[in-house]
Amino acid sequence: MAPQLDDLLADLADEHRDLDALVSGLSDSDWRAPTLAEGWSIADQISHLAFFDERAAMAMTDPDGFTRDFEQMVAAGRDASVDRARSLTPATLLDEWRVTRSELVAAARAADPSARVPWYGPAMSLRSCVTARLMETWAHGQDVVDAVGIDRAGTSRLRHVAHIAVGARAYALMVNRLTPDDRAVHVELTSPDGDTWAWGSPDAEGGSVRGAALAFCLVAIQRRHLRDTALRVEGDSATTWMSVVQAFAGPAGRGREPRA
Q: How many angstroms from the chain centroid is the CA of residue 167?
């Protein structure tokens, strides 16, 4: 059963708060520390989230304005999402993110639940847009976690991330210029709470992916290489997909090199 919008928004707000609690305790020098995303500091990660939370709210409240803004971004030919990080103090940048993310949640609550939200790819449902913002918050939060050298336990919110990744299988093949594959793949994950999350039939002809939800999601956001996990991948279709899996929109990601 698809989650209700109110539940999604509550999970998004919790994801915001968890990351906020981490970065608000960092020193200014920590904010400038590099992350594993080449050329990006911790401040850049928060700036990126603030920028696209603002654009998501714009897409919900002013679709035409969003389209114009998108066209200007394309014409400029550069990533404007990190500009603020390089012109603001960490405290001001954090305050700005708190405002943009609050505006995003408010815009989603006020939006027509049946509306299609424009984005930097195909338009999507309101629920999908909110889910994507949660996934992005968790993904860029992982960059922060890795930069400061701490471990982060998974939560039940990872189900949203896994759901996006499973649903984006065809997209991942397409952006990597691989042959479309309509053979079903079974995905069976163990949640951080010990529950089982599953997609597809256990006897799917394309094979299966089984293991910890946290590991699957880290691979799906391309913050861990598949070889660095204990995920069990069986079948040609499943193997091909997991070699390029990505839960995010945009061009094919480069992923991370194996740690070992």
A: 13
Last residue of a domain, one of 122, 148, 174: 148
Strands across the sheet with 232-234, in order? Answer: 196-199, 186-190, 208-212, 232-234
Q: Is there a single domain that holds both residue 213 and residue 88?
A: no
Same domain, 92 and 205: no
pLDDT in tens, 60-110: 999 999 999 999 988 887 778 988 888 899 999 999 999 999 999 999 999
- Residue 152: exposed, middle, or buried by beta-carbon count in 10 A (0-12, 13-18, 19+)? middle
Q: Where are the alpha helices (DSSP H) in the chain?
A: 5-23, 28-31, 42-61, 63-76, 90-110, 126-148, 158-167, 169-175, 213-220, 236-244
**How far apart are the C-alpha atoms of 168 and 178, rounded to whole Å?**
14
Strands 208-212 and 186-190: parallel
Question: Which residues are CB-contacts of 159 (< 8 A; sequence separation ≥ 6)?
Answer: 191, 197, 213
Domain ranges, residue 29: 5-148
CATH code for the domain in which residue 46 is found = 1.20.120.450
Tell me the CB-side half-sphere exposure of residue 233, using CA atoms within 13 A: 17
- The answer to pTM > 0.85 is yes
Query: Is 119 found in the same domain as 28?
Result: yes
